[in-house]
Design brief:
alpha/beta; eight-stranded mixed β-sheet; Rossmann fold; six-stranded parallel β-sheet
């Protein structure tokens, strides 16, 4: 099929888009909804064996898409782990720059049939892994696009560099070397996308970073979004300080934040607050390190909360003590949508157009973080002001309708290399 002007977008995604999913799934859903409002896209889900084993019934996507096609992936030689450390490192060096995943044998023919041919119009690669896969499909199977947009979401090489700096001392030498190779590979792939294609990121901070690397790159910002929810009623002040931390509890920055919260921040909060303290850690797939933090009644790790709104309703303060990672924190947008005051770190609020003392409180040192939590819990007027103004900023900038309109505008016209930061 020859590409035609106005043809439907092809969305290549490495996750199943879900309105109720984790952060990366929510962002994929936001893109899908924006495309569907223009014209139902053709969705290609490039899924690993582990993802295929857990994939939901995809019928819910049919109403938004003209095509829903699953492209099964298998690990390439680079993606296979070896037990022998020396052999693993030798393999990583020899296969540097090769794709980590490749289509399962015979799967590309079915993909071409589903798409109607190899020559496509507009193609949207969600995340860098899908851009890596697209390069393989283009090089080995002749797929081509008239327009290619790559959503970095965050800058993965930066997020990995931060993880190495924060936790690298706990890793073995081989792990650290493999991480450095991965960072170099990701940065190389990012540069390839910046030089040849249109790139999206979720914050102006990341846009500026990429423009420093490639001043002529076509880069634009599509913020992370969250649905506009009814604001919860204010909490009545009490003797107990109720804290909430929420996130995917198998994600390294959240694992670190939960551990830091319990072992370092909680003792400081006890010094700052005269009464009892209760902390709920809520999220999916908690790893053993997070499960071990469960010590009721003071600390509860709750992996299967059917209605997270109930957890927010019980919280005086939503805490986001993130110390590394990339992109922007959807958990902050969720808290603001529900009208709950937030205390976070400088890195936690990075990339969000929110201000300390206006929309939320920002503190990095343990005692300062503790004092911020105690201030909100002990001052009903402050808590109400932060919740109200934070929600207004969320509605103006990050509500899903606002972001969907911005995405549609970007998809409707090619980005210029002179797009202002």
């Amino acid at each position: 099929m020859n590409a035609q002007a106005g043809s439907a977008w092809v969305l290549l995604s490495c996750v199943v888009p879900r309105a109720d999913g984790v952060g990366i799934e929510k962002r994929a859903w936001s893109h899908l909804a924006a495309m569907a409002a223009l014209r139902p896209p053709r969705l290609v889900l490039a899924l690993t064996p582990a993802q295929l084993a857990q994939a939901p019934d995809l019928a819910f996507l049919n109403g938004l898409c003209s095509v829903v096609h699953v492209l099964p992936l298998d690990a390439s030689a680079r993606g296979r782990r070896l037990d022998n450390t020396a052999a693993f490192l030798a393999q990583r060096l020899l296969l540097w720059g090769r794709p980590r995943w490749q289509p399962r044998a015979g799967a590309v023919a079915a993909l071409l049939q589903a798409l109607g041919g190899a020559r496509l119009g507009d193609v949207f690669c969600f995340r860098l892994a899908c851009f890596e896969l697209w390069r393989l499909l283009a090089g080995q199977h002749g797929l081509s696009a008239q327009r290619l947009v790559v959503d970095f979401d965050d800058i993965e090489s930066l997020a990995q560099q931060r993880a190495l700096a924060q936790d690298g001392s706990l890793w073995g030498r081989a792990h650290r070397l493999a991480a450095r190779l991965e960072i170099a590979e990701q940065r190389r792939l990012e540069t390839r996308a910046l030089r040849s294609h249109e790139v999206l990121v979720c914050s102006a901070v990341d846009e500026a970073r990429l423009r420093e690397r490639a001043p002529a790159a076509r880069v634009a910002v599509v913020p992370n979004a969250y649905p506009v929810l009814p604001a919860l009623p204010p909490r009545e002040p009490g003797d107990t300080l109720n804290l909430l931390f929420l996130g995917t509890l198998s994600y390294a920055p959240n694992i670190d934040a939960a551990d830091h919260l319990v072992h370092t921040l909680l003792p400081a909060i006890h010094r700052a607050w005269p009464g009892p303290v209760r902390l709920q850690i809520v999220g999916r797939r908690p790893v053993p390190r997070v499960q071990a933090l469960h010590r009721p009644p003071e600390v509860q790790v709750l992996p299967d909360v059917a209605d997270i709104t109930s957890a927010y309703a019980q919280a005086d303060v939503v805490v986001v003590p993130i110390r590394f990672g990339g992109g922007t924190r959807i958990k902050i947008l969720e808290a603001l949508s529900l009208g709950r005051p937030v205390v976070t770190t400088t890195l936690g609020v990075e990339g969000l157009d929110l201000q300390h003392e206006r929309d939320l409180l920002v503190a990095d040192a343990p005692d300062a973080f503790a004092q911020a939590c105690a201030r909100i819990a002990g001052d009903a007027a402050l808590a109400a002001r932060l919740a109200s103004q934070g929600r207004r900023s969320f509605l103006a900038l990050y509500g899903d309708d606002i972001v969907r309109g911005r995405t549609q505008a970007l998809l409707s016209r090619p980005l210029s290399s002179s797009t202002a930061p």
